[in-house]
Amino acid sequence: MHPGSAVSGHQWNVFVYTLDGSNGAGQWKVADKTLGFYKPFDDYNSAYATANVALYYGVATTAPTTLPVTGLQSLTPVTETATYAVNFEFTYVNNGEDVYTTATGYGSDAALALINAVGSTNVSLVTTPGVNYGYLNSLYNLATVENSDGSWSWWYMMNNVLPSNESVESAFYLGMYTPITGYGELSSNLFTLYYS
Questions:
Q1: What are the backbone angles phi and psi of residue 57, rounded to the nearest 5°?
Q2: CA end-to-end distance (rounded Å), the chain
Q3: Can you tell me whether residue 60 is helix, strand or coil?
Q4: CA-to-CA distance for 17 and 39, rounded, in angstroms?
Q5: What is the mean pLDDT of residues 34-50?
Q6: 69 with 21: CB under 8 angstroms?
């Protein structure tokens, strides 16, 4: 068979090895999201954390038993080091007084670092990979609201991700940014979050 020839009923399938099987056991499963939403870090959602991807040509709709289960790559551990550090500056009003505070969190992306910095009870993110990962819903119980005068208050974020290092307002998709260098405009380790 010529390498470019198609076989009736066969197609390319993508499988990922994740640790979200029964009892935390590893398993091969069909990649149900775009590959860009899978990450090789141990702090990421276990359903999408993988360091192993298999491309398989055949009729399989479930992972074939011929895929290896030993000798696989391990997830990269996220540690409290400068590589994974993200600094956050917060500005908001609490009981009529301006609050300015800072926190440092550690994560493979800015959303996970924010949760690490302030605790999961203080932040509400929409973290569905492939949909709107890391969208900031609320922080410190301050969410998008319409004020009594008809104006709106919400969190917005500034970061220095442009080559000119200008601070620009960016979307709330914290999960798309990483403190790890080498990702161009998506690499940033400083975010200023304003509630206004």
A1: -105, 120
A2: 64
A3: coil
A4: 11
A5: 89
A6: no
Three-state DSSP at 107 gives coil
Whole-Å CA distances, 180 to 106, 108, 114? 11, 7, 15
Average pLDDT over residues 169-180: 77
Cα 34-37-38 angle, rounded to 5 deg: 105
* Contact (Cβ atoms closer than 8 angstroms) between residue 46 and residue 79: no
Question: How far is residue 18's CA from residue 24's CA, in Å, rounded to a whole number?
Answer: 9
- Cα angle 187, 190, 191 (rounded to 5 degrees) comes to 105
Q: List beta partners, residue 16.
A: 29, 53
Range of weakest confidence among 9-18, 87-96, 152-161: 152-161
Question: pLDDT-derived band of residue 114, with 50, 70 and 90 as boundaries?
Answer: very high
pLDDT in tens, 116-141: 999 988 988 887 776 778 888 888 88
The pTM for the full model equals 0.82
Burial degree of 33 (CB within 10 A; 0-12, 13-18, 19+): middle
In the DSSP assignment, the letter for residue 78 is: P
| CB 193 within 8 Å of CB 157 | yes
What are the residues facing 91 on neighbouring strands? 100, 194
Q: Would the CA dihedral through 46, 44, 69, 64 be positive or negative?
A: positive
**In a 3-state reduction of DSSP, which class is residue 194?**
strand
What mean pLDDT is reported for the chain? 83
Pair of tokens at residue 3:
């390498």
How many Å apart are CA 115 and CA 122, to the nearest integer?
8
